[in-house]
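Bumping my old thread because nobody answered last time. Still need a sequence for this structure:
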């Protein structure tokens, strides 16, 4: 067993010197990159919390999906679900922005499917100034759908449709601004409804 490990390490070292990385040679670099990303996000959140007003409430995004082929995907472990809940701290007169929520939308079918999205409900609407949910291509370069709600607007929002390409994932981007009346302990939840056709 020790010989096997030594031989594998020698082979990896040889592959690296010949510019042919072995299967495991990029693993340490990946772990370092993940650690730096986690540290960066943590520092960013700490800065936001430290520099924001004291009054905040939790924002929960509850989403439901309607099909077996188009569902929500959890980026960290690749699991699929029909409903998700995302929580954010929201502050009075401050916009909170998440460029890539922890869940996305995945079309696991072998064909394109039409996806219909809308903001269906918001509890405690007086504490939310506005909300925008944007669906982007997985590389983040192309907007495929966008839903917005501003205080006083009717709910649900109009349907937004896009064609989900076969075997493709999409990012969910969130922007929410707390109303000036937000105080500690206020709660709100936003319901994102997804259905499919075709």
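Sorry it took so long. Here it is:
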């Amino acid at each position: 067993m020790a010989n096997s490990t030594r031989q594998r390490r020698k082979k990896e070292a040889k592959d690296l010197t010949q510019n042919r990385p072995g299967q495991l040679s990029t693993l340490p670099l990946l772990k370092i990159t993940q650690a730096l990303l986690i540290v960066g996000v943590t520092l960013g959140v700490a800065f936001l919390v430290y520099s924001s007003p004291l009054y905040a409430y939790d924002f929960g995004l509850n989403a439901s999906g309607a099909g077996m082929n188009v569902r929500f995907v959890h980026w960290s472990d690749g699991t699929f679900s029909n409903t998700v809940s995302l929580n954010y701290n929201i502050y009075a007169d401050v916009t909170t922005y998440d460029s890539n929520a922890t869940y996305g939308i995945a079309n696991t079918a072998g064909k394109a499917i039409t996806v219909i999205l809308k903001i269906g409900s918001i509890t405690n609407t007086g504490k939310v100034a506005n909300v925008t949910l944007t669906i982007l291509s997985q590389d983040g370069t192309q907007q495929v759908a966008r839903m917005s709600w501003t205080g006083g607007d009717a709910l649900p929002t109009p349907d937004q449709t896009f064609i989900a390409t076969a075997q493709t994932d999409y990012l969910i981007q969130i922007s929410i601004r707390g109303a000036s009346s937000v105080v500690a302990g206020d709660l709100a939840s936003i319901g994102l409804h997804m259905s499919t056709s075709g």
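Confidence is low (pLDDT under 50) at residues 40-59. Let me know if any region looks off to you.
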